[in-house]
Amino acid sequence: MLPKLATLTDEEYLARERASENRTEYLDGELLAMAGASERHNLLVANLVRLLGNHFLDRECRVYPSDMRVHIEALGSFTYPDVSVVCGASQFHDERRDTLLNPEIIIEVLSPSTEAHDRGRKFHHYQHLDSLDTFILVTQDHPRIEIFQRRADGTWTYKEHHNLDDVASLTAIDFEIKLRDLYAKVL
After folding, report:
1. Mind listing the pLDDT tens digit for each residue in 41-96?
2. One-letter-per-residue 3-state SS of the chain
3. Tens of pLDDT, residues 141-169
């Protein structure tokens, strides 16, 4: 974690981030350095992007990998989810089109060093995205996918799948993830 700074404006953070070779997330006035990812992490992200991208070939949905920054306007936060999905028109912070405002699905692949942060602080921030319908956590070292879906009243439902023969349904996008396909070449 980098030192806590005086609160940055959106423009200050983006100018700093766009000029840097290293990515940082910005949560609660703190810049958090992004570490490199393991092979398993990268393979899971690649599998997710491929599976979702293929599903969206004939739909008005887009899947973005981890280089797409997300801005949580209500909190002034910026994150880099592992995978983001938008159906319909993508909305961006500015004309650079590198900072997404309206993800409907966010997926984080858990790493031992970031799991508590992804489950806690980041999920708390993501819940302030009015567009977010589904938050998904994927475990690297064994089959496990956790799906949080927002209900109309703002509460969240939870489903977990942890067997390679399981199929996880994402009702928001009419898609089923076969864990065997998700973990292909990973385990």
Report:
1. 999 999 999 999 999 999 999 999 999 999 999 999 999 999 999 999 999 999 99
2. CCCECCCCCHHHHHHHHHHCCCCEEEECCEEEECCCCCHHHHHHHHHHHHHHHHHCCCCCEEEEECCCEEEECCCCEEECCCEEEEECCCCECCCCCCEECCCCEEEEEECCCCHHHHHHHHHHHHCCCCCCCEEEEEECCCCCEEEEEECCCCCEEEEEECCCCCEEEEHHHCEEEEHHHHCCCCC
3. 999 999 999 999 999 999 999 999 999 99
